[in-house]
Every structure is written in C-alpha cells, then in structure tokens.
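User: two proteins, same treatment. go.

Assistant:
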Amino acid sequence: MTLNPRFEPSPRTKDIRYAIRDVVVVANKLKKAGHNILHLNIGDPNAYDFDTPEHIKEGAIKGITEGHNGYAPSEGIRVLGEAISTKEQKDGRDIWTDDVLVTAGVTEGLQMLFANLEGKRALIPAPVYPPYTTYAKFYGAVPVEYPGVEELDWQPDIDFIRRTLEKDTKKEIAALCIINPNNPTGAFYPEKTVRELMAIAGEYGLMVISDEIYDLMLYDRDVVKPATHGKDADVPLIILNGISKVYFAPGWRIGYMAFRDNGGLKEFRESILRQARARLCPNFPCQYGYLAALQGPNTFLKEGIDRLRKRRDYSVKRINEMDGLSTRVPEGAFYMFPKIGDGTGDDYGFVMDILHNCHVLFVHGSGFSAEYGKGHFRMVFLPDPDTLKEAFDRIEDYLKKRSRRT
C-alpha cells in the first residue's frame, strides 16, 4: 500500500528519538513473553520504592478540594511564583515573582526555549539528556555538543568550549547550557567550573540556560548554581527547575523557567510568554502541591539521599568488579554512565544483549550522544538493594559465561 503523500509526516519528526523509552518497546515484548525484566533505565523514583511526600500530596489534594480545577493563569499561580522567587533569592539570584513562568515540567520549558533559538546554535553538554538535541533540531536550532571528560569524572572540557567559540566568527552561538548535577553521567560541576562557564558566557555574549532539576540531590557536596551578582550579573540567565526529581513527583509535570537579565532577553522572554498563553496553562491543582513542597519540610530528602548513596556505592563496586565494565563515581542525581570495554564498541548491541540474555534493561550511551556517549550505557541506581543485587548477579554470571565461550 502506497502512503498518500498528503499523510506523510513532517521530515523533522523523523529525527525524534527518546532512547530512555525507546528501549522499553523491546523490553515490553520480552515481558509479554513471560520474562521478568529488571528496569534500570528510567529516572523515575516513584517507579521504585520512593514516593511523593504526604504534605506535597495534601497540597495538591487541597488544590482540588478548594476548587482550583479550571484554567490557571498562563504564567502560573501568583503564590507559587512568589515561593519560587523566594527560593531563587535564597540561592543568590535576583529573581522576582514576575520573572517566573510555571511550565509543564522542564521539558516544556526546553521546547519553548528552542522554539526561540531557530537558526541559532546552542552549546550543550555531552553526553546529554535527549530532549536537548531532539527539541533543538525539531525547532530548527543547532545543538553543538561540548564533551565531558570521563577521566575527570565527566567535567566539561573548557578548552573545547573556548576553541568552539573562537571559531564562531559569525556569532551564531547564542546559548550555553549547563546541567548540574548532570543527566546522564551524575557529574557535579564545582564552583570553580561554574564560575568559569559563566565567565566564558559573559566574554562571548551568550545567554546561560541552567538546568537545575537535580539541584539538591547531591552526595557529600554543596549546591553550586550560577548566581547573578558580581561578574555574573551581566550574563543573561534562564533557570530551569521543577518538582519531579528532588520532590519525588515526576508525573505531576510542574516546573518553571526563571529569567534574570539586564534587558537583553526582553523580546526573547516576551515570545516565550506568548507561547505560554497559547498553550493555556500548566496543571492547576498540582501547582499547589509544588507550593507545599517549597514551603514545607524537606527531611524526606536526606533520608532519600542516604538510601541512594548506599545504592550508588554498591552499584559502583559491582560494576567495577566485572571484567570489561568500569564506571566513575557519580556525585549527584541517581545515574551512572559505565564504560563498556575501551569505550569504542557497540553500546546498543551490548544493551540489547544484556536485555535478551539477562532481562535487565539499561539505556545505550549513544542515545545520549552519538559521538560522546558511544561505548557506554546509562543506568539508574534507584531500585532497592535486592533488585540491584539480582540485576548485577545476572549480568556478572552472563558475562563470565560469555567470556569462557570466547
């Protein structure tokens, strides 16, 4: 049957990839065949043994019972904007309520941003969370990857960034994206590195897009964020954050963008606000849940991080004990990015091999960057200790058997 040309999808949709869920399609076929699949692929704490804290649930429920079930203001409810600006000011940023736009998660914020960067180039860390490249290309922007150095625990290659900007004689690079802590590597950029990135942005007249969705999920480290005082004050800054990871509520789809600039982002910002009005509004009652999260206790987070630290340490130990696998120690978030052999092999083939023979699901590293993610895979250490042990036992046993066969 020949497809009617009128029904052919847009060519730009053909490049849409989301490796984290694309691999689930294969896993589901095995699951339907009766296999017990251990999922170490998705960064959803609630898919494992974490849950949204009760006071946050109660906030959303209160939003419903008090009748906040219609359309919310397009920019988000005022009281939430005030709470977000208070949070940002505590972090040293001159963010006020009118500088905040509530979004349907960080992903919607990325869509709005890249829709305004059509024809421009944006520096993004690599390997990187897939929507940064997917939506950049979808909206006609050009993602320019700057690599993390694995031997330095995936710290950004500052010299590479400078060389790239020096070659940008037409001034097509408009933005520098920072994801700290990082997905998929779990890397944490210390203050010196963040300051250096901000200085480069100021030197070359770039806006900085700071993705801080994992900001409080750190192991034995202190939070570091681009501030807006001193030398950073003249750098246009767009902050992305939300409720999903730190507050264990990923399905609520509530995030925000916060703008800090000296006037250079005025038209850019107005364009984003027009998009916000066109899409109506983010989830109304869940905004009250986020409000409760920001205003309530966060003792649950320390308990969650303590659990995750033990799972991280165990996972690092097991991975590094296996022949042919190695990993750096992640210092933030709940991901690690192990290397397969010398890091040059077929990572997708490895992930599929492990899935079919061990029934453990990872995500291939090339799904996060064809160049800088190849030969690696991403895994989460969110599962409970027994599940992690079972997964690593299956893999270790299989790799030993495979090694004997060869």
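Protein 2:
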Amino acid sequence: MTKSVSIEQITKKFDSSVAVNNVSIEIGQGEFFTLLGSSGCGKTTLLRMVAGFLQQSSGHIRFDRKIIDTVPAHERNTGMVFQNYAIFPHLTVAENVAYGLKVRKQAKGDIDREVRKMLELVRLDHLAHRLPRELSGGQQQRVVLARALAIRPDVLLMDEPLSNLDTEMRLHLRSEIRAIQQQFGVTTIYVTHDQEEALLISDRVAVMSMGNVEQIARPGDIYLNPQTLFVASFIGDNNLIPVEIEALAADGTASARLPSGERTEARAATGQQLTQGTKATLSLRPQDIDLAPAGTGGLQGKLTELQFLGGTIKAFFDLGTGKPVTVSLQGRHGTQIPVIGETRSLIPLPGATTLYAGEVKA
C-alpha cells in the first residue's frame, strides 16, 4: 500500500560542505511531489536519502509514521527510476520487468501475470521478447518504469528520468508518467531541473536552491505567487527591476523608485519584509504588461528590440534600469506592433507587480 513520506529536518554534509540544509517536507499518500532546482541544489541528494542510498547527517525520514533511518535501501520497498535507465542489457524486456519479482521469490505464474499487466500498462507488451539494444530511449525508460511499478512500491522515486531523451519523446513520456501514476495512485517523488515539466505533472513542487527549500506549493501558486526572490527569478520569464523603497503605506503597499527616477506602487510578496530607504526588487512578468501611448501612465520605456516567435512577440524596452524590460504580446491578427525607437507607456495589470527585499543577483 502506498505511503506518505515525512522528511523531518534533514541535513546532509559532505565533510565541510552542506548539500541539504535542515529540510522538512510532508508528502501525502498518493501525491505526485516534485523536487525542482538547478544542478547542485541538493534535490538528488535528498532523493537518495529517501531511497536509503545515502545516510543523512541529522533528521529523520518516515514512511507513514514509521522512522526508516536505519532500514536498508532494499527493505524500504521503493521503486527507483534513474536518469541513465539502469536497464539490464542481457535480459529481455519481460525479464527486466520480472527482475524485482523474482528477487522477492514470487511464484512464476504470479510473475508472468504481473509482467503482462505492467507491459500492457506502458504499451510494450508487443516488445516483451526484445533486448534493450533493440529499443528506443523512450521505450527503455518505459521498461524501467514498468519494472519499478511491478513490485508495487510504497513510494516511487524518479531521478531526472527524461533528461536523456529528445524533446518530442520527453513531452510525450512525461504525460504518460503522470497518467500512469494517477492510475496506480502511488506516492511519487520526482526530481527534475525542468520547470515546465515540474509545473505540468506535479501536485506540488518544492523549489530548491543551495541545499535549501525556497518554497513548497501547487504549480499555479509557485508561478503566480513566488514567495522569494530566487523563486521569482527561477520560475518562468520575469522582469526583475532594481528599486528603492521610498515609503510604506498602512494598506501594505509601498512606493518604489526606479533608477530612472520614475516611481510606482506595489505590494510586498507573501512573507517579505520591506524597509523604507532600502534596496528592493520589483517583479513583473512580461505577459502582465499592457502598452499604451507615451505619457499615459505606467512606466515609460523606449523600444529597442522585437522578437517574432509565432504566436508570441517579445518587445524589449529600455527603462534606464540597466537591463531591458520584456513585454509579451500576442501574435494574433490585428495586433498593433510598436516600432523600434518609439517610446511607450508600460502599464502593469492590477496586482501584477510584486516587491522583494534585497537586490536580484546578476
């Protein structure tokens, strides 16, 4: 039976280096939970501790309410899907899927039935007698997924399973993985550096940076309401504009001054504490900006570049901030495309501007 996972104040040190720093996460039974971050952020190290391949320096890991810190990896009943497939080259597709069941000394009839069921699930039943070298990368990864699920794991662990595949196969297989996970209802911890992948397939996402969890939330909240400057800069396209806080109002809004001298009002992101007279960062996504004739409100910018991307047009405006501000326009019939060199008013949608304490790193 699938289980919940509790990661309680987990820290992992390698000599003097801290790979995972006091991380606590509660993952519900049957949840598809993703650890998202760039290389070296600690996400795979955390996954390997849950699997039992690494021992944490401090903290506890529980499956349901049971502490499993000293339980060996092979006794945790986790299914593992690796980035490099870890498929047995000398075994057929069916033999690969049957491997874990044979190790558990299940009856041959039971093994044969489960293998057939798993291969039908991943749509490889017609390739049961082929060797891995006769399969595509996507097919090999489906074999590994079927092998991991065949043992009926309490928790399914997936470490960058699609990173070695081409774009088309990756797009197709990630939807398959999500559909299969929902059908099985197995608690899944998924590691990826691909933010689009994480937002698409996850129930919740933990964004990690330098061994720390920056934010845990549903995909929509991660994108629409990032709680830290790192998450705002890491998730999706964003304009991050340096400002100085000039005044704080009782209703929670702040008056911020841009390097150009222009002023705008915005609210602090959830959990952010702003102080008058300090540096801050204004967050404004490209699709949340309307263009209007110069001098009609908003922020004034000079168009310096246009990029035509089919259904989207990216317009880059110089606001005197040191970095162009991007505006995303729909490339639909009748769209009024601005002319390079002209000045326009950039008007944020209501509530779209957010302030974070501190300056964004270049």
